[in-house]
Each structure stands twice: as C-alpha cells, then as structure tokens.
Description:
Elements: E1 3-8, E2 13-17, E3 26-30, E4 34-37, E5 40-47, E6 57-62, E7 69-70, E8 83-84, E9 92-93, E10 106-109, E11 115-116, E12 129-132, E13 139-140, E14 148-150, E15 155-158, E16 171-172, E17 194-195, E18 208-210, E19 217-218, E20 231-233, E21 240-241, E22 254-256, E23 263-264, E24 277-279, E25 286-287, E26 300-302, E27 309-310, E28 323-325, E29 332-333, E30 346-349, E31 355-356, E32 369-372, E33 379-380, H1 387-392, E34 394-398, H2 402-407, E35 416-420
Amino acid sequence: MLYYNIVSDQERTCEITHGDEVGEFSGSITIPRSVRHKGRRYKVTAVGREAFAYCEGLTSITFTSNITRIDSAAFFGCVGIYRLKLPKSLKTIGDKAFYGCSAIPYVDIPAAVVHIGVGAFSQCEGLVDITVSDDNLHYDDGNGRSCIIEKSSHSLLQGCSSTVIPRDVRAIAPYAMSGSTGIEKVNLWPSITSIGEHAFSGCSSLKAVAIPYGTTDIASFTFAGCISLQEVTFPSTILTVGDYSFKDCRSIRDMMLPDGLLTIGSGAFYGCTGMTLLIMPSQLYSLGPSAFAHCNSLPDIALPEGVVALQPHTFDTCKALGNVMFSSTMKSIAAYCFYGCEALTSLTLPASLEYIGECAFTGCIGLKAIKCSNPVPSAISDDAFSPDIYDNARISVPEYGEAYYSKAMGWKNFKKTTRINQ
C-alpha cells in the first residue's frame, strides 16, 4: 500500500509519501495516475521527500505522465533499482533523489527538467552512462560525455565512471563525481576554479589528480575515500585544504603541500595510512583537529613556525611517528594530540610551550626522554602522560627550574629527572 499527502485541495493534487516502516517496499512499483480520497479524485504529481528511502528490495519504478517532481532523497539508498526511466513530464529532481542507487546503469534526463539538486545521482556506483535530451533548455550532456552540465553556470552537476569532463567546464558541483568507482583519471581543465565538497569522494579507482591553477580552496571531503589515489599536484594558489578532504586516501605516499597554504582543516588527511613523507609550508599557521590522525606510516614531522597551537587528536595514532620537531613558537599541545604514537622515543619541548592537554602523550609506549627548554614548567594535567611514562621516562630540565618541576602539577609525577647545566 502506497501513502499519500494532499498537495492542493483546490487543484486536487497529491504526492507519494513515506510510511512508518523504513524500507517496506520491494519489487516493481507503478506510481498511479490518481487516487481517490473521501469521494474526490486527486492526481499524483510528485514523489515526496524520502518516500522510498532505504527500500533496498525495490527493483524498478514506473512513473506516469502526471509526475512533475521527485523530491529530495525520494529513492535514497535503493540499491536494488536496476531500471529507471524518468517521465517526460518531470520538471524537478531533488537533492540526493537517487543517492546510493548503485544498480542503476543508465539515466536519461528529459527535456522538461528545469532543476536538478545536489548529488541527485551520486554514489550510484553502477552508473556508466548519462544522457540529456537535446531539447532541454537548462542542461546538456557535454556532447555525449556522460554527464550533466548546467548550461547557465558551465558547471558539471553530475558525472559517472565514463564521464569525460568537457574543456569549457568552470566548476565541479558538490557530489558531482562521488561514488564513480570506475574512474581512474580525470582532467581538471584550467577553466575550473571551483570544486565542491564531496566532488570526487569514493572514487576508489582514481590514481592521480592535478588541482587547476587558480583554485584557492579544497572543499570538505572532496577526495575522501579515494583509496587508490597516489599522486596529488597542488597549484601555488591553494590557501586551504578543507575538513576531511583527503580522508582515508591510504595510497598517498608523499604529501608535499604547496607554499602559500595557510590552513589545513579537521581530519584533512585522517587515515592516510600509506603516507611516509609530509612537508608543510612555512606560511602554514593552522592545523585542524585530527588533521593527520591515523597516518600510521608517517615517520617524522617538522612543524612550521606559524603553527603555535596543536589541536586535539592532530597526530593521534600515528604509530610510526618517531621524530617530532616543534616550532620555536609552539604554545600549546591539545588533548590526545600524540595519543598512541608508539614509536616516539624522545621529545624536545620548546621554551615557548605553555600548555599540554589531557592524554596528549598517552600511549606513547616508547617515550623514554623528554627535554624541557623552559625553566618555568608549562601547565599540564596529571594525565598528560600515561603512568608508564611517568615511571620510566626521564625528563631533563634547566638547572634553575628543577625545583619548580618537582612541585608542578603533572611534572612532579616523573620519577626520573636530570638537570641541564646552563
């Protein structure tokens, strides 16, 4: 049984809506032209928001010529749909309307469509061909390049594994290529100045990418989950690497960030487990929380002078990290910043350091030597280091500061202290 909402009593129109049970529909479904309610007949003109979301057993949909609108997430996660023919009457396709419909092989956009929302066909892993009616006034397919181009903005709105990006494209929309698992190479032409969030997320076969000159920001999750990505070329115009933009890109080995880069967002390189080289530019001043967390192969880091504060979990569980060179301007190391960095054997803390947060070095089981450069102890919590470090590691402190360290919170927990003669 399908469920309906009345859209207009005056025009006697209604839309398909969702029921109380998630994923209750399966098999083949035909949307009726009209339904009767309290003795009156209503035309079914739309499929409402999340109407069939997560109906994993749904295999095909037959639309009637009354349908003009398919709302946001209407068929979200319907992984079983393998046949889709959009009606010629259709005018609007909402955000993520068919997101995650991984069995759909082909999409044809009718002439009447005037609006296609963000990520309408994203994460459709089986999608290999997209066409747009030649009579559509708002969109085209790039002359047979298996994509949806918004004519007014020259934006790539949607692509798939066989997409060839046209040379006149100026922007890659959010989620445009997300989940195109078969694509190995993309040409990002010089005309492109904007790449939206999640644009290439989950492109698991993509091996190399060159960001075009003029791009200033890499948006959130842009290349997240590109597990085969090995080579990234940045232009000198990049100022920001956004949150989780390269999350779980586990095949990246060398990461040489461009001069001019100012900020790296939260989790930007989280889970880049293959990274063995990291070079950060001198102008960099901001590293977000978890920026390089779980980069398990990273052996050493040198922090630029502009980075004066490390956020929580910045290098959490970087198990191979054996050498950290702090900037001479470093003021604070936040909670869990180096949690679980098992290969770390020694630290030299700069004189500028003022604060170390809770569990910042907990789980650094190899840490045996800590050199403190400031005779005045920085503020730390009692659990900044784990008990085994307090028992076994030796701290070296300036001779005029030994008495202060022996009484200071956290520092007084160390069992072994050596005086540095000055």
